[in-house]
Each structure stands twice: as C-alpha cells, then as structure tokens.
Design a protein that fits this description.
heterodimer, A: about 150 residues, alpha+beta, Heat Shock Protein 90, five-stranded antiparallel sheet, 3 helices, B: about 130 residues, alpha/beta, Transcription Regulator spoIIAA, six-stranded mixed sheet, two-stranded antiparallel ribbon, 8 strands, about 35% strand, globular
Chain lengths: ~150, ~130
C-alpha cells in the first residue's frame, strides 16, 4: 500500500522550489524516512526537476514537467519525467579532480553525480522522446539494484 | 524562498551573507554579488552560508565560480558553513578538499593572510 502524489508544473525554474516543498511534505506524511534523508531527497529532486525544466526550455517545449512521488512504509520513490530531446547517459563525463585547474572551469555538471550519490537507487532512461529519472530512498538506506 | 544576500566588511574580509535557497533561481544573484565585490577590489571574500536553507549543484557552481574569480585576482575565498546538512552537499562533490571551510565568521579574524608573488593565501594563526 502506498500513497501517490502527482504534480505537473510549467517548465519554469521558479517552480523547482514548489516541487521540493511538495515532495518533502509528502515524504513527511509517510513517516518512513529520517529527516536527514528527506534533506537528501529535496536535493536530489531539485537536481532532477531543474534538469527536466532546462530540457524543455532548450527544446522550446511548452509541455509540463511531470513529477510523481510514491510513499510507502518502506520507501519514497520519485519519478521526474520530461519531454525534452533526451541525452546520451553513457556520454556523461567525469569531473576533473577538485585540486586541478580544470575543475575551477566547471561550474555545472555536478547534478547527476549528486543525485546518484544521495539516492539509494537511481536510474535515468533517456530517448529522443524525453527523459525519466527515478530516485528511490529506502527506509534504513539499504541499496538495491534493478 | 528566494535567496537573500547581504554584504558587510570584516577587514580584511568582505563578507557576503547568503540566506534562503541557493538553487537555479538564487545562484545567479550570488554570482552577480561576487562579480561586483571582486570588481570593486575585494580580494579576500567570505561567503557566509549560516542562514542558507538549501543548496544544490547550481549553488555549488556559483561557489566554484567565486573561488575561480577571487583566485584570478590573486585573492582567496573562505566559506562559512556551520550546517552539516549544507556542508554535506559540498562534500559529495569533494569541494571540501579545495574550499576553506569555517564554522563561524569569528574564525576569519584568526586567519593570517600571506601575499606572495601576487597570490594570496590564508592560514590559521598559531
């Protein structure tokens, strides 16, 4: 048994804070995650939602970005779906080491690493029809695969 | 909540106190405040994140940009970040390895400033 909250937002950056607020509030209603994990959830969802909005802005899409949050006693799973042009997930490049000069030239490109680090499980499915990011936060923080 | 930025002087440091949300909406405001402070001659810049509620990769990017800008002018950046919740996001990207992190603006006065070959560095006074 799980509770589901779905929202559709215009592809505008000022809606990202609303998504953070709704998802965090939904996760708190299903008292399964510790407060520190809800902080992690807010950051990861912010990254996914911002990327989705930017994909729509870049492609000129006026369609909404869709966010779905499923809360149960065992997990909180958030799906962020856009209808942007997609990207090659395998072509993502590693950040240079922090101490290198090149690192100071990279002010963007950290979002996906942060999502992957914070969620217990994450996946990105991207095609020319859009991108779906799935972020799972599990009670107890156990990592699952699949 | 949007970002709030307040500038003050704590010689030799210029302090930008950043509150609210440092995300895709708020980060450009902080970036602009840094650009202005550096253009006006601030070489020792401290970003006080004590009142920050939220940071994501866009906020981190603005901090990396601030570090780059002050170092290009031979200066140095200090980050006041008492919240473990905020600090954790910097640590995920290993930025704690290159940022001078402090728990309070009080510790800025404990740093001695060394200028060598046009570059500035800081170290804690013994």
């Amino acid at each position: 048994m799980s509770d589901m909250v779905e929202i559709e937002i215009p592809a505008r950056a000022d809606y990202v804070s609303l998504v953070r607020l709704v998802v965090a509030a939904a996760a708190e209603l299903a008292p399964s995650l510790e407060p520190s994990r809800i902080d992690d959830l807010r950051v990861a969802v912010s990254e996914a939602t911002t990327n989705a909005i930017q994909a729509h802005i870049r492609s000129g899409s006026t369609r909404p970005v869709k966010v779905c949050c499923r809360c149960s006693n065992g997990s909180v799973v958030v799906t962020v779906r856009d209808e942007g042009p997609g990207f090659d997930v395998d072509a993502l490049t590693e950040m240079p080491p922090p101490e290198s000069e090149a690192r100071l030239g990279r002010e963007s490109g950290m979002g996906i690493s942060i999502m992957r680090a914070l969620a217990d499980h994450s996946s990105i499915d991207s095609s020319s029809e859009g991108t779906e990011v799935r972020l799972a936060f599990l009670v107890g923080g156990q990592v699952v695969h699949g | 909540m949007s970002v709030t930025i307040r500038r003050s002087e704590q010689p030799p440091w210029t302090v930008l106190s950043v509150g609210g949300d440092l995300d895709v909406v708020g980060a450009p405001d902080m970036r602009q405040a840094v650009v202005t402070a550096v253009a006006e001659g601030s070489r020792l810049l401290a970003l006080d994140l004590s009142e920050l509620d939220f940071v994501d990769s866009f906020g981190l990017g603005a901090v990396v940009g601030a570090l780059k800008r002050v170092r290009q002018r031979g200066g140095e950046l200090a980050l006041v970040c008492p919240s473990s919740r905020i600090r954790r996001v910097f640590e995920i990207c290993d930025l704690d390895r290159i940022l001078s992190l402090h728990d309070s603006t009080d510790t800025l006065s404990e740093l001695s400033v060394v200028v060598s070959d046009g570059a500035t560095s800081t170290r804690r006074r013994p």
